[in-house]
Amino acid sequence: MNLSKIKKRCMATRQWIIIEGDDGAQWLSDGANCYAIVGIRLQEGYIRDVFGLTDKQMDKMIVRTEKRPGDLYGAGRPFYGEELEEMRTIWAYEQKIVALRNGDGVLYIPEDAILAACGKDDYVNFYLARDKDGNLLVAVYHGMFCEALLSPVRDDIAEQISGWLAKLGTMPILATELAKREEGEDEEADLTARG
């Protein structure tokens, strides 16, 4: 958990949602992504002091607490769904986006959402999860613990990124074409020298 990065995400959406699970586990959400809170017990009145917000900043924020029943938001969460394979980090929409895939397709998650849950060099696993409404989430596990439940980018953005990548995949590779030309020139030079 990276408090400064979680703060940045919550400041951007102007939402600080404290989520409480059935077993007392707590998460902090920016409205789309949820981060496990470990080591402290949050209350709405603590947000200002924990994150160093001014009164002026707090006036622009929505701060609320929600109860979310079920195993997904509990402390003893099992691994959810199928493991996702990290494919590549892509620059799109003025941010780095991580492509994750399983046998059914690809999901895209903003890298800064992942980095709010763990360090850049931390070994993490990604699992497919669903909320109570059936919406897809990516569960980020560091070791045996779920650090975050992240929402993929919107479908229209995902389709646009996949379209760019598909188009890119059909283009010839310049290095290969250059190598073929140089190979052809070398063959011509050999034939001329022999001739």
Quick description:
The chain has 195 residues and is an alpha+beta fold. Helix content is 31%, strand content 32%.
Outline the fold blueprint.
Layout lengths: L2 H11 L1 E6 L5 E4 L4 E4 L9 H4 L4 H5 L2 E6 L15 E10 L2 E8 L2 E6 H5 L9 E6 L5 E7 L2 E6 L4 H15 L4 H21 L1
Parallel strand pairs: 1-4
Antiparallel strand pairs: 1-2, 2-3, 3-10, 5-6, 5-8, 6-7, 8-9, 9-10
Q: What order do the SSEs take from the amino end to the carboxyl end, as H and E? A: HEEEHHEEEEHEEEHH
Question: Largest sheet at a glance?
Answer: 10 strands, mixed
Tell me the fraction of residues in β-strands, as a range: 25-35%
Q: Class by helix and strand content?
A: alpha+beta
Question: Mind explaining what this structure looks like?
Answer:
The chain has 195 residues and is an alpha+beta fold. 31% of the residues lie in helices and 32% in strands. It contains 6 helices and 10 strands, in the order αβββααββββαβββαα. The chain has helices at 3-13, 47-50, 55-59, 111-115, 155-169, 174-194; strands at residues 15-20, 26-29, 34-37, 62-67, 83-92, 95-102, 105-110, 125-130, 136-142, 145-150. The chain has a 10-stranded mixed β-sheet. A hairpin with a 2-residue loop joins strand 6 and strand 7 (105-110). The radius of gyration is 23 Å and the shape is elongated. It starts with a helix and ends with a helix.
What attributes does this structure have?
elongated; 195 residues; alpha+beta; 6 helices; 31% helix; single chain
